[in-house]
Amino acid sequence: FIPFYLIVVNTFKSLQETAANPMGFPKKWVFDNYIRVFAETPLLTSFGNSLIITVCSVLLMVLIGAMAAYPVVFNSNRLNRWLTLYLLAGFMIPFQTTLIPLFQLMTDLHLIDKKYGMGGAVFVFFLMRGYMRTIPAELNEAAIIDGCSVWGIFWRIIFPLLNPITITSAIYQTMWIWNDF
Question: What angle do CA 27, 28, 29 make, to 5 degrees?
Answer without folding.
Answer: 120
